[in-house]
Amino acid sequence: MHAQDQGAAGGPPVPDDGFIADHDAASGADDDDDDDNAGGKPTTDKKAGRRKIKIEFIQDKSRRHITFSKRKAGIMKKAYELSTLTGTQVLLLVVSETGLVYTFTTAKLQPLVTQPEGKNLIQACLNAP
């Protein structure tokens, strides 16, 4: 994993093992598109709200990173909500294109991402062909 890559992006400090726990998923942004009205001026479109986007690979690296960050926050929030509403145990791993592993876990599954055995298993799966 490339733990040093995250620091340059201005993100949270990354532990040496490259695992980042997103405990603040409940307060994350739910907006998953990056077509925000940057000018702050009202639009004349009758279509208010979100726009439908094509689900295809985003070529522009900057837009891809923004979309990754927003959607990661959204899926972390959904994992938190699922566990809270249904009382289920949830383990979510999101691996960035730089190899950083972001995690959300409920209490019972926390050892899978904090203990060396669990980290080694996850790393072995990620390194498999």
Explain what the structure shows.
This protein is α+β, with helices and mostly antiparallel strands. The protein contains 4 helices and 3 strands; from the N terminus they run H-E-H-E-E-H-H. The chain has a single domain, classed as 3-Layer(aba) Sandwich (SRF-like). It is about 35% helix and about 10% strand. The chain has a 3-stranded mixed sheet with strand order 1-3-2, with helices on one face. The longest helix is centred in the middle third of the chain and has 26 residues. It starts with a helix and ends with a helix.
Alpha-carbon Rg, integer: 17 Å
Kindly report how far apart the N and C termini lie. Answer: 15 Å
* Gross geometry: flat
Q: Give the total of domains.
A: 1
Mean model confidence by pLDDT: 79
Pfam families: SRF-TF
Domain MADS-box: 48-108
GO molecular function, one term: protein dimerization activity
Keywords: DNA-binding, Nucleus, Transcription, Transcription regulation
